[in-house]
Amino acid sequence: MVIGSLQAEPDTSISGLVPSGGLTGANYANIDGSIDLWRTLLNSGVITGGAIVGTLVFGVLAGYALAVLHFRGRGTLFAMVLLVQVIPFQLLTIPLYVLTVRTYGLADSYLGMVLPFLVNTTAVFVFRQFFLQLPPDLFSAARIDGASELRVLWSVALPLVRPALLTVVLLTFIGPWNEFLWPFLVTKEASMQPLAVALANYTANVAATTSNPYGAVLAGSVVLAAPAVGLFLVFQRHFTATNLSAGVKG
């Protein structure tokens, strides 16, 4: 994909991996000349960052409650969380649109684009499973020392589930970053459109008129995929299991 995006002329053969005519950045220059690349990157960063923060906050709190706290209806509530995961987001698009745009009046706003991604049931499930692996004696010892539940969560539980935090950040990043349909529905303001929407419009309306449409499409794909790949490369060495029983005597 990277080589194809740098080709001056489209060549899908094996020999095209080493283009005879050399490599060029013209396809990327066409993208930058057709859309406000840095503005769309900023919009995507705001939307994705808001989704990540909301997912981490609500996911950690809900996952901790479902794994550690004991209350009536906990099993039923967790079953509902699992049920939500089998419902495709596309089925919820119209009800969410009516609720967000017409009821809350959040059209053409970052909050309206972030709102549906603030709570992620997959993140709740991941955090619950990690918290269940922690020895209950760790929580009991902290409570005996007078720690509140939030203190137990912050000082005892979270440091031991760092792989889960990084996994959720990566999984959450991919969804809003690549999301096209929802931001397209919520806002028609070009200055607020994220990168995925801008690249989709570029591919549909502009790429075909360039000297190398094939390379233009691949260049757009590289621009969209590069941040997710980079994030994974940065975090991959941290995706390791933690010795969760290290703090328990015996």
Annotation keywords:
250 residues, mainly alpha, MetI-like fold, membrane
Distance N to C terminus:
53 Å
Shape: elongated
Biggest beta sheet attributes: none
Give helix and strand order, one letter per element, not per position. HHHHHHHHHHHHH
Instruction: Count every beta strand, where a strand is a DSSP E run of 2 or more residues.
Output: 0
Query: Helix coverage percent of residues?
Result: 55-70%
Strand content: under 5%
The tally of helices reads 13
Number of domains: 1
Give a verbal description of the structure.
With 250 residues, this protein is mostly helical. The chain has a single domain, classed as MetI-like (MetI-like fold), CATH 1.10.3720.10. Helix content is 65%, strand content 0%. The chain has 13 helices and no strands. Helix 2 (26-34) packs across helix 13 (213-235) and helix 4 packs across helix 7 (121-132). The longest helix is centred in the N-terminal third of the chain and has 31 residues, at 37-67. The chain is elongated, with a radius of gyration of 23 Å. The relative contact order is 0.17. It is a multi-pass membrane protein.
Task: Set out the fold topology.
Blueprint: H1 2-5, H2 26-34, H3 37-67, H4 74-85, H5 89-103, H6 110-114, H7 121-132, H8 136-144, H9 149-157, H10 162-178, H11 181-186, H12 195-205, H13 213-235
Helix pairs in contact: 2-13, 3-7, 3-10, 4-7, 7-10, 8-9, 10-13, 12-13
Keywords: Cell membrane, Membrane, Transmembrane, Transmembrane helix, Transport
GO cellular component, one term: plasma membrane
Pfam families: BPD_transp_1
